[in-house]
């Protein structure tokens, strides 16, 4: 496995030098620790609906989603009744996918449960970076359709530090011998986490920056 500096140099060569590469990197947003509960539900819903669908279409319809789901008020959505659900299935301002619409209610309930643990923002922001895969596993188990890429993207859009196992990041991890195919098993994800932890120790950078450097070394 190459050092982080070696991979950074590969990316810099591909993207016009170190300064140009730095300009392309994303960094964690400290404000994530104060992100409102309704914005977490909004982000979860957007990522669920974007999975396997045109992101452009979802973005264009998003004002309709915000209105249809009461600006993602968590208690209102947690107590969504069948009448409300039926109305949503007829609402042309949103994508009328019944299974995905029901995830809004499920994830609102999940967020309300997190209130007993200090609230979503605290739970997500305080989770150790060295166990980011543990956070992803929790999202998968306790949330609805928040496994795999969806959970990773929720954290990325919120500004919470973490990695996204995109095609290009996965290609670099395979090239470095960390994994031999896309990481789906717990063993493979632990290997990915260990590699990121090592690169973080070497560089002092965030997981988000490292993830982006890996992606740009291939893409």
How would you describe this structure to a colleague?
With 219 residues, the protein is an all-alpha fold. It has two domains: 4-28 and 163-216, no CATH class; 34-126, Hypothetical protein, domain 2 (Endonuclease III, domain 1). It has 13 helices and no strands. The chain has helices at residues 4-14, 18-24, 37-50, 55-68, 74-78, 82-89, 98-114, 120-126, 132-142, 148-158, 167-175, 186-203, 207-216. Helix 1 crosses helix 13. It is elongated and about 55 Å long. The mean pLDDT is 97.
Q: How much β-strand is present in the residues?
A: under 5%
List the secondary-structure elements in sequence, H or E: HHHHHHHHHHHHH
* Uncertain residue ranges: none
Class by helix and strand content?
Answer: mainly alpha
Radius of gyration, Cα only, in angstroms?
Answer: 19 Å
CATH topology of the largest domain: Endonuclease III, domain 1
Mean pLDDT: 97
How many helices does DSSP assign?
13
Main sheet properties: none
The CATH architecture assignment of the largest domain turns out to be Orthogonal Bundle
Shape: elongated
Q: How would you summarize this macromolecular structure in one to three sentences?
A:
This protein has 219 residues and is an all-alpha fold.
List its traits.
219 residues, mainly alpha, Endonuclease III, domain 1, 2 domains, elongated
Question: How are the SSEs ordered, and which strands pair?
Answer:
Elements (H helix, E strand, L loop, with lengths): L3 H11 L3 H7 L12 H14 L4 H14 L5 H5 L3 H8 L8 H17 L5 H7 L5 H11 L5 H11 L8 H9 L10 H18 L3 H10 L3
């Amino acid at each position: 496995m190459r050092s982080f500096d070696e991979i950074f140099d590969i990316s810099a060569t591909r993207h016009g030098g170190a300064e140009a590469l730095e300009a392309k990197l994303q960094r964690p947003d400290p404000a994530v620790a104060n992100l409102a509960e309704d914005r977490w539900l909004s982000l979860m819903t957007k990522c669920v609906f974007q999975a396997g669908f045109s992101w452009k279409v979802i973005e264009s319809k998003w004002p309709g989603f915000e209105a249809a789901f009461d600006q993602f008020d968590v208690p209102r959505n947690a107590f969504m009744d069948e009448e409300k659900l039926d109305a949503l299935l007829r609402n042309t301002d949103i994508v009328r996918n019944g299974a995905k619409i029901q995830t809004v209610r499920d994830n609102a309930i999940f967020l309300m449960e997190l209130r007993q643990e200090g609230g979503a923002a605290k739970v997500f922001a305080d989770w150790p970076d060295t166990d980011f895969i543990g956070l992803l596993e929790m999202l998968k188990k306790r949330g609805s359709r928040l496994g795999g890429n969806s959970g990773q993207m929720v954290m990325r859009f919120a500004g919470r530090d973490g990695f996204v196992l995109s095609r290009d990041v996965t290609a670099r991890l395979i090239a470095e011998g960390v994994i031999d195919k896309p990481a789906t098993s717990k063993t493979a994800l632990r290997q990915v986490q260990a590699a990121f932890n090592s690169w973080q120790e070497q560089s002092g950078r965030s997981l988000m920056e490292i993830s982006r450097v890996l992606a740009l070394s291939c893409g």
